Amino acid sequence: MNIFIIFLYLINMATSVDSKEIKLQLKQARELINRKDHAAALKLCENIIVQDKKNYMAWVMIAACAQELKQFNQAQCALFKALELDENQTFAYQGMISLYEKCPALLTEEDLISSYRKLCMLTRAYVFSLPKANVLY
Fold first, then answer.
1. pTM of the model
2. Could you say which of 21, 68, 109, 119 has the lowest number of CB atoms within 10 Å?
3. Which of 26, 35, 34, 36 is nearest to 60 (CA)?
């Protein structure tokens, strides 16, 4: 029984180290994006996906970098993957709208309208969840 507990502890420690490493890599990717080094940021985010295929922010950053590098198909695939992982976050919808503006042939107007609609619903839900003192009238 003690060996099993130690095994679980070691697995937990390895997972938390990986999580910390991924957070650090995401922060580095954001800094690279801010410095307009989209190729390096894209490579770093792809490396994160190898470690954690369900990392929403890595997929969103891949889309942003790919879009800036004019790799529009990769950006679209990354955004659809991000939406598949979490459809209640705004970043992927903002990315879809931005992608449509840069490459209208890639997405349909229905995709655009759907993205705007979902973004409005999420923003509205957030605003109405705030305490009344924080809402500006």
1. 0.79
2. 109
3. 26
